[in-house]
Structures are given as structure tokens and as C-alpha cells.
Amino acid sequence: QVQLVESGGGLVQAGDSLRLSCVASGRAFSYYNVGWFRQVPGKDREFVAVTTWSGGSRYADSVKGRFTISRDNAKNTVYLQMNSLKPEDTAVYYCAARGAALSTDPGGYAYWGQGTQVTVSS
Hints:
This protein is an all-beta fold. The protein contains no helices and eleven strands. It has strands at residues 2-7, 10-13, 18-26, 33-39, 46-51, 57-59, 67-72, 77-82, 91-98, 111-112, 116-121. The strands form two sheets. Strands 2, 4, 5, 6, 9, 10 and 11 form a seven-stranded mixed sheet that branches. Strands 1-3-8-7 form a four-stranded antiparallel sheet, with no helix packed on it. The N and C termini lie far apart (40 Å).
């Protein structure tokens, strides 16, 4: 069982940066893969980035080169550094955890945070 809480969202201008944090509580956080997803009203939740227990990572093409995912298992925290933000990055961002192999499918994640709003003005 893992509980996740996201923070760090806000209202920024295009070109600005934000760092989102996902703090976990519960057992064995270091054994979980943790992903970031985002969603806008009326659309499906989409993959953003994921980091694995082994240190691997993968990014959606739309954010590759701008976003960086990292984790600090000692602090039970996963970060998403978002640079060069664009209006199309506006969404509610969620972190999620799974114990199985790396996945970019939101349906494969068992534990979810409440989400944090990111709004990028043009």
C-alpha cells in the first residue's frame, strides 16, 4: 500500500519552469516504479514520464528534452522538473506507482495521488 501526494503546481507563463514533487508514504516505496501523467477535461489521461526502481526512465515525445524525472528513495520523493513550459502543458498532473515492470499505460498503475494543477499562460 502506497499513498502519494503531489505538489508544486501553479500558474506560470510560457517559457517558465516548475518542479513537481510526489511524496510517498507507506511501505517499500523504493520497490515501485513511479510515473507522471496529466489530464485535461474531456480527454484521456496521458503519459508524461516514468522512473523505475533500477533508475531507468522514459518520456513522452511531447516533453522529451524539456522535462526530467528523478527520484530520491531516501526521501520517498519523485520529482518532475519541467522547463520551457508551453500552454499545451496545462493540465492536472498526477503521480502514480506500480510494483510491476515499467509501463506508460495509466491503467497499469494501482496507486494515484490527488493531482496538482499546472497552468501555463501564453
